[in-house]
Amino acid sequence: MGIIVCQSCEATIEHVEDEKVTVLYSTCEHCQHEEEE
């Protein structure tokens, strides 16, 4: 099982099915919106 975490606010975005435990970094919709402004 893996999780996707926002690299800006550390919020858990999504859980993904994976063979091993992994943490992937992305940007959540809230932080992505702030960067565009």
TrEMBL record:
It comes from the Bacteria. It holds the Pfam family SR1P. This is GapA-binding peptide SR1P. It comes from Heyndrickxia ginsengihumi.
